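Minutes, methods subgroup
Present: GH (chair), OT, SY

1. OT presented the first of two proteins processed in the latest run. Sequence and structure tokens recorded below as shown on screen.
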Amino acid sequence: MILYSWKNVLLFFVSVSATLASTSPTGQSDPRNIRSGSIIYEHGYCDQPYVVLTKDGNWLCVFTTGSGHEGQSSQYIVATQSRDQGQTWSEPAEIESPAGPEASWAMPLITPSGRVYVFYDYNGDAIRTLNEKPIRADMLGWYCYKYSDDSGLTWSKRYRLPVRVTACDRSNDWQGRVQLMWGIGKPIVFDGKMIFGFTKLGRYMLDQGEGWFFRSDNILFETNPDKIKWQMLPDGDHGLRRPVFGSVQEEQNLVWLGGERLYCIYRTTMGYPVHSYSQDGGHTWSTPEIATYTPCGKPIKHPRACPRIWRCQNGKFLFWFHNHGGKTYDDRNPVWISGGLLKKGKMYWSQPEILLYDENPKTRMSYPDLIEQDGHYYITETQKSVARIHEIDASLLEGVWTQELKSSDPVEGCVLSIHPQKGSPSENIQMPTLPESKERQGFSIEMQLQLSNFKAGQILLDSTARSDNGIRIQTTEKKTVEIVLQSGRQQTRWDCDPEVLTTSKEHHIVITVDGGPKIIMFLIDGLLCDGGMYRQFGWGRCKSQQMNLDPVNPLFLASGKTLKRLRLYNRPLRTSEAVRLYHQSQ
């Protein structure tokens, strides 16, 4: 068998425009590519597309829109229906008028009777200046709601929620005469009650954020809006925040853990989200902490973007985030998903999978929603002008919930499995024949190795010995292992995180080159590299370039003293598969 097949595997490096590539037939074949989803709405501005299933079995989506960009005075909220699980949508109907005042950030709730509520910001006092200067006004004013008894076709008059004036308001630019706030996500229902989170701001614009919650214990059954009972939580004068975490603590959303127990997560500008637990239905909260994969474990990395959590119908949890330590609004592509399990009252999050991506790295997707129906999972997202919905492969989600389960089942796609000899390095190994590959496919390399020292330049695998084309895996001066994809004078290289490899133990390494999102990632001893304290990203982006691999190159491997085992897969493995391979190796 010849090496020509390697050229086919790496064709995704062909340099083409991101737009054309993402709309090509091969781009559509990857359901993770957002261009393969169904468009809900496309407009100048389109944000927070949240869906409820109506009493007639259809989908009702509410979102914020406008003819301009985010924050302009034409911003208003609308509703649209789908009768075919998101494939097509009706013309949006106004919930509030684009003539103003500004209405934004609608969060829908469906009650057992079929009544649909939406909770949203409303600039009822028409405040549009501060110190006589024009300002963005979509987070100023009142928290309001309307309801519909005909699945979103018509809506009631506007009602106002009783937002208490607290210390946060009294210290703002208007000394509490005007309030600044907004919410993301949807209300959650637990034990016959409803609660949703929102953010108050202590200063215009987007400073001194803190979390608050509106709870009602009778809204699900009370049909008279004047008799709905409201509690604004937590108790007291201060919302959910921790001063040491800085000014930005916002976009609180939560899930039910059973009984009166709740779990909340929100964004910061530290490069990490923050989480907190309530044991009494939101009245009091634990001291906020940096969110970790396990209690007191590895921190989860996430920029200033919406960190969205859901409780699924099976009682397990999902977490949407971006898996890097940025501190700005940027780099919301790709999206990663982690599965959550509750153990002894605490949340345990799995190693993450790539959920969605766009081929343009600058695309920013966020503000998602999850819909479950008849065993299928769907997720909405928006890039602020286009809102889409995507059916998610259920096996991917089952994978993130079952990573800890040991399995002896073989992993599909293994085309080379060898144990190098313990003596001299191995040369002239015949490469397997790989299938014809389309763009946006990839491969994974699994290794078990033990290094005797960290001398840079130690070759573990090399197919470039007789030319400048191929793949090389080697040690670096940073005491890491890196993969080099070589094409003449052009290279793509990425290495694992520092200080995860030692000379005292045998390590299990899976290197994946995923040609869909064009991501290179390392998973070492069952943990996905995330950059740690050393760099913002633990994963790297492949360059868009032609990989002209010489078909006569042999494969060189380090001796069995160092490289205990090698497996090559003719497809990119999922994170969950790589984690289970690690457990199999133990």
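2. SY then presented the second protein from the same run.
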Amino acid sequence: MTTVAPPLLHLNSPPELKVVEMTKRFGSLVALDSVTLTLKPGTFHGLLGENGAGKSTLVKCIMGFYTPTAGQILVDEQVYPIKSPKDAHGCGIGMVYQHFTSVPAMTVAENLVLSRYSRDQVINWKREYAGLRSFMERSPFQVDLDVPVGQLAAGQKQKLEILKQLYLQSRILILDEPTSVLTPDEADEVLGLLRQEVQAGHLSVLLITHKFREVLAFTDEVTVLRKGQLAGHGVVADLTVADMARMMLGTDRVTKEVDKTPWAEARPVLTVSGLGATKDNGLPAFGPLDLTVHSGEIVGIAGVSGNGQRELVEVLAGQRPAATGQVQVNGTPYRATRREMVRHGVYALPEEPLRNACVPGMTVAENMALRTFDRPPQARGRLWLMLKAIRQAALGLIQDFGVKTPSPETPIQNLSGGNVQRTVLARELSSPEVSLLIAANPCFGLDFSAVDQIHNAIVEARNRGVAVLLVSEDLDELLALGDRILVISDGQFVYAGPVAEANIADIGHKMAGH
């Protein structure tokens, strides 16, 4: 017979959590380099950094998802080898993830009971409900125990994720971008109530965020990571936004040189007017946005993940319907159908190409032909595929774009990430009819040689008059390739200007929603 979860141990203060000289390598990649962080008992601690700075790697080492290459985790000055989330739970550490982990078809009560580390096979629901109601009376959030999770609003779902950790008696909460799915009012309510629990000495919180506003409003201390290293730490009351932006972005950015040539006959290619769309959960994703990209120009969109840029790319690529506004390409309405993309010369290099731009089980040659398989010489009468012509075209692209593959008949899912991206790049840029290229985080996770090749191909397209919309979370990439740069925050453009005049500090403030 199962037992009811014991009450929250509010009589004892949370333990001190200390991470000492933590390093994590993935092959030759150093994701985390000798980072030290201390979460003092009963404090609210912010963890800031650009995308890819090492924040998620650090907390995954703390939670036991990753085994660190070097370093130690101390709880109240005792070394604990945390090898799994269950080990972390034993130390009183719990994590609330960026995406919901509850089962939508089950009720709140069932999800709470399911969250326990328990092997009980029989549940006494009368006893469970008595314990759950008692727990809910003491908790900072109130959620109806009998409602299926799928019927809850996003704010209530996020409260449930936090309640699960409180129910498990976690005394240290790690929150991974907990407000990314919430409205500003919901975010303030959730963080404000947790702040009260921290001030009462019931909890310690480590908040991963990209928003300076949240750091200033709710945290006591902040640690900043940059490129896997500790970039700074301090008491929030003693720091300005400029101080934190300087730590997060650095002042010693080196922009690599690319061979860009001026394009004299600039004309509007992509024109976006009042465009808006919603997220999968129905909340506004972005908009209304106005945007123009000219021929022979790279317009970069900077922003921290989750601010509407993914949905914007999906609308332009025909993967998500627009809610409001209009899009024109070369002065005519554009609705992102395959037929219109061919007619207007719109091509795309999306994020996660194996999922968004390829058919994994199909061959390299077949994936290269996805744009052209229904046109001569690869098709006859729009009915018969000319396999020999498809193969010959693929052989030429493999050579021109340096795709490393055993043969054109190799399934594309067997290739490395860089070679998958090269394959998609070859398909999208080989046509002489390219007018507009939409590229989203085109170099994420790739090695240096692949990055240089993709950067060069994008710049070469720009130099021959292609209009390029480059969406990236890598600010250095945008500064190196872009002619103009925009910053998107909470679905709105909050900064715009030529790259040559870019103010890094101002861009950092805007990216962080301040």
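Chair's summary of item 2: Residues 253-345+435-514 form a domain with the Rossmann fold fold (CATH 3.40.50.300).
Next meeting: continue with the remaining queue.
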